[in-house]
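Lecture 7, part 2: worked example. A protein chain together with adenosine-5'-triphosphate.
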Amino acid sequence: MGNSENIIELKHITKSFEDGFAAVNDFNLEIKRGEFVTFLGPSGCGKTTTLRMIAGFETPSSGEILLNGEDISHLPPHIRPINTVFQRYALFPHMNIYENIAFGLKQKKTPKAEIKKQVKKVLELVDLEGFEHRNVSTLSGGQQQRVAIARALVNKPEILLLDEPLGALDLKMRKEMQLELKNMHRELGITFIYVTHDQEEALTMSDKIVVMSAGEIQQIGTPEDIYNEPKNTFVADFIGESNIFNGIMTGSMKARFAGGEFITVDDVKEGTQITAVIRPEDVQIVSPSEGQIKGIVSDVIFKGMHYEITVESGRYEMVIQSTKSATVGDQVGMKVEPDGIHIMIAEDHTNYFNVDMNRDHRLEYNGTILDTSLTKIIKGSKRNEDKQLVDANGEIIDPDKIRIIAAIEPGDIKMTDDAEEVLYRASSPA
Ligand code: ATP
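Predicted complex, written out as structure tokens:
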């Protein structure tokens, strides 16, 4: 049994094609009656396949689709109270507008007078009053798409599926139609499920966005949630622009990344490997002494509403949006407030090595001094009964060379075939 607030529930839906490829994998989603839900993701992530399963054009390999609490996974499309609008209008070219819209009602043997009334009503809704006798070929792309929407709406579906319906329109028409569709949704009160790969379109139109990648849901949330609190780096990168850095928590609400130390709002345990995401509009350019990090401006592009400024800071790069320009080659400081930093716990791919710390606090590995500064010591040593300093295995530590564990992130390891430079030589596979 489903929840009665929900019109559609997808439970553990998987779709594998004959070649064994799983286009959709364990997809779980609840859609409330009257919601405007958008499936958003890059090409090939399984948006259309999911929509086609809801419409009934594809059968799930496993899982259930509930409509008003009833399993419809195996019902044919024409029995479902669901209509689809496709990217290509799929209008009948030999019929006029009236006949195109009336087609479905005629099939259902609806009385003529009723058909006339219904066609008039939907044409008003899509702002095409008086177009009944026009030929399809005389309409613009935007007008044809409105006819396609009218033809779907005349069947009074409970759910309208829209598969990239504005994909073939130019930008201006697209923006106009986005607003019109949103208004139509508000007036009709029916559930819209919309597919797009355009993040701006999804943010503008939806009550709820389902971000997908490689057949799996990455995040479900309101446009604000998805933009402000991306759950992982895929979402952060796909929705809007982001600066993404690997780092480590260095204390309570303190993180180190991009060569600087930052105060954060997320309280993650000290020592945790993290990924920090910063939106370009959350970075302020300040004087070099005021910033948490500094760097050299390497690029400035005028974008209309703002400048997009790239600053190189050592091996890191920060993209910044600012209403004020900057000069290429200048040294600047960069400041980020705690709520502009989104911390995600990263998978730990750190490599641990035993290295020696000499009396100058320099690190040595295999007799070579490492060109690095010591940022953190993971304590492992203790005194034995004779008050000698010993390591975790009980071995006596030479106080001239204290053995410590160095944590090295994969990104900091350079591979080289220069024997002189080498600290560690991996053996070739046999
Ligand atoms: P787009 O935005 O490009 O339309 P999408 O997110 O809608 O992409 P789908 O059309 O759902 O993606 O396709 C998901 C994956 O499933 C793709 O890799 C596609 O090639 C594959 N696929 C879709 N239909 C079939 C099929 N009938 N047989 C085999 N593979 C298929």
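Residues 6-228 form a domain with the Rossmann fold fold (CATH 3.40.50.300). Helices lie at 47-55, 97-107, 112-125, 141-153, 171-188, 199-205, 223-228, 233-238. Keep this in mind for problem set question 3.
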